[in-house]
Design a protein that fits this description.
heterodimer, A: about 525 residues, CHAD domain, twelve-stranded antiparallel beta sheet, 16 helices, 12 strands, B: Rossmann fold, seven-stranded mixed beta sheet, 7 strands
Chain lengths: ~525, ~250
């Protein structure tokens, strides 16, 4: 029984029994069954379920839906089991997906803004419910329970996976208790359970709608999760891995082109970077001409996406940046923000043109075709090396290279040596992720944790430097455009000084982080990962 | 939570029909409403097709072994619940008298926990002057007094007003309204017209004597629900609108 005193059922009926004759006939054994036109809750209701592209609400055990009313509507946040958590009125839900932080202030925004940021809320499922209420009367003609029937039609909003498809769910039935008559509601429920085809609702409307539309919750993740096994021939495993990365890349294109939120481009870029690393590190098991061609093509694609992403990073971190100002005022930096926005609009047009162009289409189509050929035709003929042999040799080599390169870095080494080490660390991280299904999960987590700490430090070092140079370049560009008031340039100078400080701190921390990763204990953790405890 | 009580020492003057219709109108406005049928005859319960029975009887409610909350039944209408009558209510005077200190405030104390759940409570009282009616007067914010337009009823109203004026502390607002008014009778016309203009606390909107109101016992529903456009329903709506305001000075 739910909090509202409702018992939920689903009726698996045929089209001929759309008015649920069998249900009515069963209930008439104990009650007089009478329609209640205009009853509270009856009529047509429109709901839209929302979540981020990567299902952040669902993964946090929450569902969010917008209930449309004649004027405006309301947003309702619930737990997965339907328990309401918060709701707030909204005048309308914009046609364009929006960020939770752009909602008017209210309890729903408070609960989800941090959780979903910086991702936009997308319509996942739309449902139109036609609800009718039937009264169940006792011998005195008194209503002692109600049967609430909900015929739900669902569709996936256009532009998303399964866009435009519509499905009708089996009618949902609920027995609503009338206060003071719990026994009668129970009786109605027992009668309902006995009707062939009627069963307790095991899924929420949202979950049932996803199933009907051929989707399942959390059907997108940006992590690799390739379906590979240890004994698989290496070319097959690599092709599977690269196909999975290509899927991720393509899934994000629509979101990038519609400029829904910044993370579509981020995930697309990660897929491109992982693909480039895989080609570089594992390409030996693939045809050489294929490797040569796509090495160039994916570099082009990666470079094409860089300017917009760099500007996104500046804009996403802009507020945090202004909060750090000591001497200057946040308002001083507003001309910089305006400059970034203008420049992003320009770069975005270039990126969109590239993603809509023939070169990009050729890359994705030809790459998929070639990989499918390897996975299904050429690869299976080759037994050696196996996937696990490839994983162990490449991972071991990558680790040893980091140990050697990092060990040679001293306090006098130029910044480039750390930048180079960062690239090697990233490659090792990707190799670990690619072959994650072949490793012992505990050993894997330990190595990744060490590596992540080293990567964070190297990332801080390089990002601070890159951003500092970018700020200088932007100051030049703003001056050239005549869009740089003196106060803004001073504030940018203060930001550059902060970045220099962060870089120095990261450099100081490097030795300790590297020692943890590459010292005896770290090496032992990698040995356990690659060779096993025995 | 605002408590309305329909009260008159005499029976058959339209207390129950007023309580039932005004409670229905309150609920139809979206206010969470409870009607307590305090009359052991159970007419209000009958009109809502609810059995006039409370588990443990009046004794359990007054002694607190059962809360009012447990005895409440949902009517067929949204936002409208009923606390049914029970034949043991005929002994409610004795039960109240045994209820310990300040027996005239017992009903008020019993109703207090319902404040969060209801916006309006209607008490439909049995015709009498007793400890029950005194309890009702102490519990109510508004006393709705149906009057048949006769000289004697006017005298009764005077006595009631005087009685309530003697309360120390909180006193209910008294709203009298003419009930079962027969427009063919000259006396009814005169008294209805004169008293409503001359006295404070007398509603300008009377409830006429109509067969449609009597039909409630056949339909077993408020006339405001089964014949919302009838003259009778209009009269109750006008009265409901009026008694929600403060009486004219």
């Amino acid at each position: 029984m739910t909090a509202n005193g409702l018992w939920d059922f689903v009726a698996d009926t045929t089209a001929e029994d759309s008015d649920l004759t069998a249900v009515r006939s069963a209930l008439s054994q104990a009650f007089t069954v009478r329609e209640e036109p205009g009853a509270a809750g009856s009529g047509t209701h429109r709901r839209t379920w929302l979540d981020t592209f990567d299902w952040r609400l669902y993964k946090a055990g929450l569902t969010l839906h917008f209930e449309q009313a004649r004027r405006g509507g309301r947003l309702v946040l619930s737990k997965a089991d339907g328990t309401p958590q918060a709701e707030q009125p909204v005048t309308r839900w914009p046609r364009r997906p929006g960020l939770a932080q752009d909602l008017p202030p209210g309890p729903v925004r408070d609960r989800i803004a941090v959780l979903t940021s910086p991702r936009a809320l997308l319509p996942i499922v739309k449902a139109v419910s036609t609800v009718s209420v039937t009264r169940l009367l006792n011998a005195d003609g008194k209503t002692v329970a109600r049967l609430v029937t909900d015929h739900v039609t669902v569709n996936a909003p256009t532009g998303d996976t399964g866009g435009g498809t519509t499905a009708e769910l089996p009618p949902r039935l609920a027995v609503a208790e009338v206060r003071g008559y719990p026994g009668q509601a129970r009786k109605a429920m027992i009668l309902l359970s006995g009707v062939p085809g009627v069963s307790h609702a095991s899924q929420s409307v949202f979950t049932a709608a996803l199933t009907a539309l051929g989707r399942h919750p959390a059907d997108y993740t940006s992590s690799v999760e390739a379906e590979i096994t240890a004994t698989m021939p290496a070319p097959v495993a690599v092709a599977r891995l690269l196909l999975r990365l290509l899927d991720t890349l393509e899934l994000n294109v629509d979101g990038v082109l519609r400029d829904i939120d910044t993370e579509f481009l981020h995930d697309l870029r990660v897929a491109v970077r992982r693909t480039r690393s895989a080609i570089k590190l594992l390409g030996a098991v693939l045809p050489a001409d294929l490797v040569e061609h796509f090495k160039v093509e994916f570099k082009w694609l990666g470079d094409m996406t860089t300017p917009v992403r760099d500007l996104d990073v500046h804009l996403l971190g802009f507020d945090a940046l202004t909060e750090q100002l000591v001497a200057a005022s946040p308002a001083d930096l507003e001309p910089l923000r305006a400059f970034l926005v203008r420049r992003r609009a320009r770069e975005f047009r270039r990126l969109a043109a590239a993603l809509r162009g023939p070169r990009f289409r050729a890359i994705t189509d030809d790459w998929r075709k070639a990989l499918l050929e390897i996975r299904d035709v050429d690869g299976p003929r080759r037994r050696r090396p196996s996937a696990v042999a490839l994983a162990l040799s490449t991972t071991g080599r990558s680790f040893r290279r980091i140990v050697a390169q990092g060990g040679a870095i001293t306090t006098d080494s130029p910044p480039e040596s750390l930048h180079d080490l960062r690239k090697r660390a990233k490659e090792l991280r990707y190799l670990l992720e690619f072959f994650a299904p072949l490793h012992d999960p505990v050993a894997y987590r330990k190595v990744v944790s060490d590596l992540k700490q080293l990567q964070d430090c190297l990332g801080e070092f390089q990002d601070s430097e890159v951003q500092r140079h970018e700020i200088r370049d932007m100051a030049d560009a703003m001056l050239a455009e005549g869009a740089a008031p003196a106060a803004t340039l001073l504030a940018m100078g203060e930001i550059a000084a902060k970045l220099a400080l962060s870089q120095t701190e990261a450099r100081t921390e490097f030795a300790a982080r590297f020692a943890r990763f590459a010292g005896p204990a770290g090496r032992e953790r990698v040995r356990v990962l690659l060779e096993g405890r025995s | 939570m605002k408590i309305f009580a329909t009260y008159n020492i005499k029976g058959g003057v339209g207390k129950t029909t007023a309580a039932v219709n005004l409670a229905y109108l309150s609920a139809a406005d979206g206010c969470r409403t409870l009607l307590w049928d305090l009359d052991p005859q159970g007419a209000a319960s009958f009109l809502f097709r609810i059995k006039p029975r409370v588990k443990g009887g009046g004794k359990a409610l007054i002694r607190g072994t059962k809360t009012l909350d447990d005895a409440i039944k949902g009517t067929d209408f949204d936002h409208l619940d009923l606390l049914p009558a029970d034949f043991t209510y005929r002994n409610m005077d004795l039960l109240l008298d045994d209820a310990g200190a300040r027996p005239t405030r017992k009903l008020a104390r019993l109703l207090k926990p319902l404040a969060a759940e209801y916006d309006h409570v209607f008490l439909d009282c049995p015709p009498s002057i007793s400890l029950v009616s005194e309890n009702v007067m102490h519990a109510a914010d508004v006393l709705l007094v149906p009057l048949i337009p006769t000289t004697l009823s006017v005298r009764t109203l005077d006595q009631l007003t005087e009685f309530v004026a003697g309360f120390s502390g909180r006193r209910p607002q008294v709203w009298a309204f003419f009930s079962m008014v027969d427009r063919r009778k000259k006396l009814h016309q005169e008294i209805t017209r004169d008293l409503a203009t001359e006295r404070t606390g007398v509603a300008a909107n009377p409830i006429p004597a109509l067969s449609m109101i009597e039909r409630m016992s056949v339909e077993r529903a408020p006339v405001t629900a089964f014949a919302p456009r009838s003259v009778a329903a209009r009269a109750y709506r006008a009265l409901w609108a009026e008694v929600q305001q403060d009486p004219k000075p």
